[in-house]
Amino acid sequence: MRAEDYYRRDYWEPARYWAWQDEVWKAPRKEKVDVGDVEQVRDGR
Question: What is the 8-class DSSP label of residue 27?
């Protein structure tokens, strides 16, 4: 983590931190993951 990110006011001022957390919970990021096809595993490999 970069120092400027670590020391952001959003992390260290409680009111700003909880406001930021509320935003995250209200609108979580939408991600898509492609896990691929199922593969048969033989001999523990």
Answer: S
Q: How far is Cα 17 from Cα 44, in angstroms, rounded to an integer?
A: 46
Rg (CA), the chain: 20
Query: DSSP secondary structure string, 29-43?
Result: PP------------T
Q: For residue range 20-43, what is the model confidence (pLDDT) as tens digits? A: 999 989 988 889 999 999 998 888
Dist. CA 14–CA 33, nearest whole Å: 33
Q: What is the distance between the alpha carbons of residues 14 and 20, in angstroms, rounded to a whole number?
A: 10
pLDDT of residue 45: 56
Query: What is the separation of C-alpha 27 from the centre of its chain, rounded to a whole number of angstroms?
Result: 13
